[in-house]
Specification:
The chain is of the alpha+beta class. The chain is built from 14 helices and 21 strands. Helix 2 runs parallel beside helix 9.
Length: 501
């Protein structure tokens, strides 16, 4: 028996912040007390009855959150996942010392839906490692010159003026992009409004108009997690830093901190979410096609398995949908978005550090460059008994070349470039693993980014369902980004089904 929809919405609103309903969705006035008879679809001239109320495609945060909400509302839900693991882009690297997060690293104090789910499933959170992430000290290698952070302000290669000269290179993009942000002080969905379409232009063009010089723009391009600063909409970056700064200084955890991680690894969350479902999540089910007829959707997988349902929630990354067939066909703006939108790329090469090379050359362990290697960081150890490990992290346009390489070739490339820049690393590293969401056929990349003109063209069409197929994933989020954006989008897809049943 399905849950009273008004009661469900009241409970959901208490657990979530910033609830966004899909266009046309409002709490119904008719209470459902019985399940409707499952419709059937004629496939190969043979009527087939829907095997589930809802099939959810993708066992990342968005799909699992939608599945949990639907099941709580009385629906029979089956989740299927193409990978042989749960979590999507939330992935704790269990085989790397310290078990770092491949992506989806920090849980913000404003992540209401995510925090509620963590608490509901009985997981624990802890504070991030001190000195890790954006707070780690960097040795800069710019135009072939090594520069310590304390020498940067007075260095001749510093392109900034006045007080800005204190700003370190890895902070250029986040600080300068957000300065005088036209979205500042506006609601988190303001980026969709037509009055801001004038900022849907190349980000380097926006920055030049603000008086930013070319040397600064070039250094900002090192860390832009997209297709290059020239091929990224300024609105993509303005929205990104608007979301990041929206709750800054306003929201915190009870201990006063702003960020947490899940004790034991963030992958424990999707595993717990899947474990709470009545129907076991089916792994290794790569979806290759959807066919809807007579109110039933057939979901076909690469292994030959098929699932049928009255409704489908699809969390497949939008660019991966290019490889999936739809019947009836997807047309119009939605089809254009599938064909044209893309995800930010990165490659992580993880190493065991056999000897502390920084003790040999007397320089800081972590290196940030404007060259082909970009960044190499030594992991902060939570457990003093862990061996030292480190990773090279290359993103944006510089990572494109790795599409042409095997994992062994990626390792060789990184080792050679690192040895050229820093000879003390030669022979001191042992290969562990290559991690890249883009190299995973189910992943597409790290997160969606908007190219110039795409916000105006596509942003208000991303949440439109295709018949009984409802799309979710952080690329469809309105208010949030990252992991909380995934939760937001899964919530919206679930509500779309619940409120319009």
């Amino acid at each position: 028996m399905k849950t009273n929809r008004r009661k469900f919405i009241r409970g959901l609103a208490g657990a979530s912040a910033g609830l966004v309903l899909p266009i046309g969705c409002a709490p119904g006035t008719k209470e459902e007390t019985t399940e409707s008879t499952a419709p059937s679809v004629h496939i190969k001239n043979k009527p087939v009855k829907a095997s589930h109320d809802v099939v959810v495609v993708g066992a990342g945060l968005s799909g699992l959150h939608a599945a949990m909400l639907l099941e709580e509302s009385g629906y029979d839900v089956q989740v299927i996942e193409g990978r042989q693991r749960l979590g999507g882009r939330v992935y704790t690297l269990q085989d790397v010392p310290g078990k770092p997060e491949a992506a989806g690293e920090y849980i913000g104090a404003n992540y209401a839906r995510m925090i509620n789910t963590v608490n509901k499933l009985g997981l624990e959170m802890h504070n991030p490692d001190v000195g890790g992430g954006p707070n780690r000290p960097w040795l800069y290698n710019i135009q072939g010159q090594y520069i310590n952070a304390e020498n940067w302000e007075s260095h001749q290669l510093n392109p900034l003026e006045g007080e800005d000269r204190r700003l370190l290179p890895h902070r250029f993009l986040s600080t300068i992009s957000h300065r005088d942000n036209p979205l500042q002080g506006k609601p988190l969905n303001a980026w969709l409004e037509p009055e801001y379409h004038k900022y849907d232009i190349p980000h380097d063009q926006y920055l030049r108009a603000k008086g930013v010089n070319e040397e600064t723009i070039n250094l900002m391009n090192v860390v832009i997690h997209a297709g290059g600063i020239h091929n990224t909409s300024a609105m993509n970056e303005l929205r990104r830093y608007h979301v990041m700064n929206f709750s800054d200084g306003k929201l915190s955890f009870p201990d006063g901190t702003s960020w947490k991680m899940i004790k034991g690894g963030n992958s424990l969350l999707p595993e717990a979410m899947a474990g709470s479902m009545k129907n076991k999540v089916q792994l290794g089910r790569t979806v290759v096609g959807f066919k809807e007829q007579d109110g039933v959707v057939q979901v076909s997988c690469a292994d030959g398995s098929e699932y049928t349902a009255k409704q489908v929630v699809c969390s497949i990354p939008i660019s991966v949908l290019r490889n999936v067939t739809f019947e009836p066909y997807i047309t119009g703006i939605t089809k254009e978005a599938i064909d044209q939108m893309d995800y930010g790329l990165s490659v992580q090469a993880h190493f065991l550090i056999k000897e502390p090379f920084w003790e040999q050359d007397g320089m800081d362990a972590n290196m940030w460059t404007d060259g082909l290697l970009e960044r190499f960081a030594v992991r902060t150890k939570r457990n003093k008994n862990d061996p030292e490990s480190g990773l090279a992290f290359i993103n944006g346009p510089e990572s494109l070349k790795f599409r042409l390489m095997s994992d062994d070739q990626v390792f060789t490339y990184v080792e050679n470039k690192l040895a050229e820049l820093r000879p003390s690393t030669k022979g001191k590293l042992e290969r562990l693993m290559i991690q890249s969401c883009e190299r995973d056929i189910h992943g597409a990349g790290d997160w969606v980014y908007w190219q110039p003109g795409q916000v105006k063209k596509f942003a208000n069409h991303m949440r439109k369902n295709h018949g009984n197929i409802h799309f979710c994933g952080e690329h469809t989020a309105i208010m949030e980004r990252g992991m909380e954006g995934a939760f937001e989008s899964g919530e919206r897809a679930a509500l779309d089904i619940i409120l319009n049943a």
